[in-house]
Write a structure and sequence with these properties.
The complex is a heterodimer of chains A (about 60) and B (about 300). With about 60 residues, chain A is mostly helical. Chain A has helices at about 5-25, 45-60. Chain A is elongated and about 40 Å long. Chain A starts with a helix and ends with a helix. Chain B is mostly helical. The chains are: A mainly alpha (about 60), B mainly alpha (about 300).
Chain lengths: ~60, ~300
């Protein structure tokens, strides 16, 4: 792995993680109780993409 | 809108000819969505091989992918026929117009799904076949039956189904999955929410009437526009992750950066002009197609 690949890995990981944390932060604040059939707890669904992305990035750093 | 308001003429209720019936069955598979799925399969195969793979393998994988995706879409049409009937965008589909009845449509979808598995297993390998079928099952069971009508995160989690064809393409060539294949999967996964929320902004009233909790219906336009912009940031980051895997080179890196900045600008523009959501929808289609084409070009050239 060359230097440019490490730099791109660091920068792109940071962009993606900052983005997904912002997404999750805002989504968890979304009121859904008012919608018929809507769930009041979104935690698992919101954390699904966060966990997937973190796992992928960790794998890329280790690999 | 209630069901009786839909006008079903005799012509619509029963296809007049064999040609019309065949057309209705093709329509049931949602060919335009299949096109987009296949656009991601071929570049994944080229990147996996590092050059253009055997043309027969490409054709065989596309046939199998088309069968699986067509089956998934046909079954989705059956499950969603009640809401398709009340939405303007979907009320002309074969089931709401009664050109096809639910039972034969379900049988058709099941046959296509099984045929897709058998075909891919016979012509590529078991991993590609299993992945393709898992995409079908995820789309039907997890997205259509469980998530679509119950959570505002429906399209986020459900997006995994649409991302599977990239894995199928990779597996068809290598009989395995590498980190690069999972990055491609992630690109499509994180592209899906902003893409479909743009569509949901356009058809917000339809979704509300049908009782589908899409983000604009539940959280409002402002929150949706904000989420679209945030997801494009995630998408840009994820798209660049393919470079460090070593599967692609500088041609892809520069293209992904340029295309990502362009899409993010489009998202910011949409924030200022929410009425142009279908324009963003079109941009996001172009973005995904161009990104995957550049992957293939890079892999084939370098």
């Amino acid at each position: 792995v060359d230097t440019l690949q490490w730099i791109v890995l660091a920068v792109s990981s940071a962009i993606a993680l900052v983005g997904i944390v912002a997404v999750a932060w805002r989504e968890l604040g979304t009121p859904v109780d008012a919608f018929p059939g809507g769930r009041s707890r979104l935690t698992l669904e919101v954390l699904f993409p966060v966990a997937g992305l973190v796992a992928l990035i960790v794998w890329l750093w280790i690999g | 809108v209630s069901a009786p308001e839909i006008r079903i003429t005799d012509h619509q209720a029963r296809p007049a000819s064999l040609g019309a019936l065949v057309k209705a069955y093709i329509e049931l598979t949602k060919p335009r969505i299949i096109e987009l799925l296949l656009i991601t399969t071929v570049p994944a195969m080229v990147v996996a091989a590092g050059r253009w793979p055997s043309t027969w393998l490409v054709v065989a994988t596309l046939i199998g992918g088309t069968l699986s995706a067509g089956g998934a879409n046909a079954i989705n049409n059956v499950v969603d026929r009640d809401i398709d009937r009340v939405m303007r965008r979907t009320r002309g589909r074969p089931l709401p117009t009664q050109r096809i009845q639910p039972r034969p449509a379900l049988a058709f979808g099941t046959v296509l799904g099984v045929a897709g598995f058998v075909w891919l297993w016979a012509t590529t390998n078991l991993l590609a076949a299993a992945l393709s079928t898992s995409g079908l099952l995820f789309y039907v069971v997890v997205y259509t039956l469980i998530l679509k009508r119950s959570t505002v995160q429906n399209i986020v989690v459900g997006g995994a189904a649409g991302a599977v064809p990239a894995l199928v393409g990779w597996a068809a060539v290598t009989n395995g999955l590498s980190p690069a294949a999972w990055v491609m999967f992630a690109v499509i996964f994180f592209w899906t929410p902003p893409h479909f929320w743009a569509l949901a902004l356009r058809y917000e009233d339809d979704y509300a009437v049908a009782g589908v909790p899409m983000l604009p219906v539940v959280a409002g336009r402002a929150r949706t526009l904000e989420q679209i912009e945030l997801y494009t940031i995630v998408l840009v980051g994820v798209s660049l992750l393919l470079y460090p895997t070593g599967a692609v080179g500088w041609i892809y890196l520069v293209s992904a950066l340029g295309l990502g900045m362009w899409l993010h600008q489009a998202a910011r523009r949409l924030h200022r002009r929410p009425g142009e959501s279908m324009r963003f929808f079109g941009f996001s289609n172009l973005y995904l197609a161009a990104l995957f084409v550049m992957m293939a070009v890079d892999a084939a050239v370098l």
